[in-house]
Amino acid sequence: MQSKTSFNLWYALVTLLTLLVLQSMWSRAVRIEQIPYSQFQAYLAEDRVDEVRIGRDRIQGKLRDPQEGEAPQFLTVRVDEELADNLAQHNVRFAGEIENTFLRDLLSWVVPVVLFVAIWMVLIRRMMGKNGIGGGFMSIGKSKAKIYMEDDVNVTFADAAGGDEAKAELQEVVSFLKTPDKFQRLGGKIPKGILLVGPPGTGKTLLAKAVAGEANVPFFSISGSEFVEMFVGVGAARVRDLFLQAKEKAPCIIFIDELDALGKARGVSAMGHDEREQTLNQLLVEMDGFDARSGVILVAATNRPEILDPALLRAGRFDRHVVVDRPDKAGRRDILEIYARDVVLSPEADLDVIAAMTPGFAGADLANIVNESALLAVRRDKEQIGLEELQEAVERVIAGLEKKNRVLNPAEKERVAHHEVGHALVALALPGSDTVQKISIIPRGVAALGYTLQLPTEDRFLMTQSELENRIAVLLGGRIAEELVYNEVSTGAQDDLLKATDIARSMIKAYGMSPKFGQVSFDRDPRSQFLQTGQPQPVGDYSELTAHEIDCEVRRIMDEQYNRVHGILGARRDVLREAAAFLLDKETMTGDELHHIATQAAVTALEASVAEVIGS
Ligand code: ADP
């Protein structure tokens, strides 16, 4: 914008100058001579004036027959009549003075214009600055500056440690890019969009880049927030531009960071969100428009998949989701090792110790630790980075992280481990529960401190009463495990209780599973939520007495399950402790590992009792 405006100014100046020069040349060509008024009077007296044009204070005229060396036209400034007569009588040579108003005129109109332009420029520049546009008005929509393109990416999967599951999924994309024909041989379509989901700093950008590096294709990247602009239509133009550029370079990877900034669910109240909505629509249109055979693969990252517009996640768009989670202990060690390669580490600095100290840390935090420790070592004039520096760096980073996200203290971690193993053991003990896949005490998100991942063995459409009861039991398992080990519960079971109570309430109100009420449903008509009648729905069309009885029934179910789980876990206290210790150490464990510990404990117990019998 800068260059454009000054360019225009220069234009104006040059034109003005040219005009001035032309004017003076013209007046010279016509040859008008400026003469004193007394001279004019003399011409008049000699009858030499042919014609005059009289202005307010100037008189311009032609001489009748100009002599050699005389200009044919003249210009004079009028002098007061009386004064002129007087002066003429005394033979004074006199002339009117031409006031030069040029400068005054110039100032009177040029200064305001210049001021106006200057203020306008300052304002515009400020506006642009705020929105981070370097290019200005003229380049809006082109946005070439902000689309980063790397032709030759030298990041590979080896640079991203941990997250093996994510890498395995992405490996497939690499093969797509490398040998598209192989996958299309039978008419299959290559996925267009891959969504990387995970907390910040876990290496989503790194992985996307590694895909480009491994497949040896160009990598376009842009952040979702950069699409969202002040002016309606600009974001959409950017999306178009991005895809246009990418198609030229295909096969390639387009990486959109912070997809949530752009892809938030389109609200009902669209007030003020027109721009984002347009941009999002444009993205959807572009995604539908391009053919994956062209070899453009879209990779996006978000840490808030739940707020994304469902249209983005539909089949044919971002339908592949790859979870990039915080690394577990082994993963953290590997990441530390990658960064330790670039610094001078003392041989006795044990990275395992640091990995054990840093549950919940993301890759970016670990990279930061290594860097901090290097700085610390330099400050201490050391030749190598020792364990001390690493540990101190961890403390520093933790202090910074504590504000941002959860880093569990050891006591909390132990409690979470028992809690999670509690869930898993109950699931293991109850026949017909979903199999336990993975138990983890790596903090995730805001609420969950750990999680037990159960996967159903088959798709379910119906659930029996005992299966629902088992679900409640598994949910209660965590809380009861805490109770058994610590004789006290914590706030960590809030979500479990909520879910369990919901199931129990549905069993009674919706599914008619209470012998007390018989074949009655107290649930609202499930269709009513689709038939938006505009009428407020009654909360429950039953009496207060019934409501009270429902509450009693819910409590009965919960109590029954509580006792049941108490029995199950009470008999497995040893396994509970052992598995929790294992989990504390490794941070994640598979269902098989838990099963192994449980069988091992059962065998030991059996042996003990056999020995006892034999001994007695
Ligand atoms: P995200 O996009 O998930 O917020 P980034 O990919 O930008 O995270 O990661 C930030 C930095 O953290 C990376 O540049 C890299 O140095 C480091 N990092 C994160 N995860 C890993 C990992 N798994 N292995 C190696 N380095 C990592």
Automatic annotation (TrEMBL):
ATP binds at G198, P199, P200, G201, T202, G203, K204, T205. Its EC number is 3.4.24.-. Binds 1 zinc ion per subunit. NCBIfam families: FtsH_fam. This is ATP-dependent zinc metalloprotease FtsH. It comes from Candidatus Entotheonella gemina. In the central section; belongs to the AAA ATPase family. It is found in: Cell membrane; Membrane. Residues 190-328 form the AAA+ ATPase domain. It comes from the Bacteria. Coiled coil: none annotated. It is a multi-pass membrane protein. One of its GO terms (cellular component) is plasma membrane. Homohexamer. The keyword Cell membrane applies. HAMAP family: FtsH (MF_01458). The active site is at E420. GO terms for molecular function: ATP binding; ATP hydrolysis activity; ATP-dependent peptidase activity; metalloendopeptidase activity; zinc ion binding. One of its GO terms (biological process) is protein catabolic process. The chain crosses the membrane at residues 106-124. Zn(2+) binds at H419, H423, D496. InterPro entries: AAA+_ATPase, AAA_lid_3, ATPase_AAA_core, ATPase_AAA_CS, FtsH, P-loop_NTPase, Pept_M41_FtsH_extracell, Peptidase_M41.
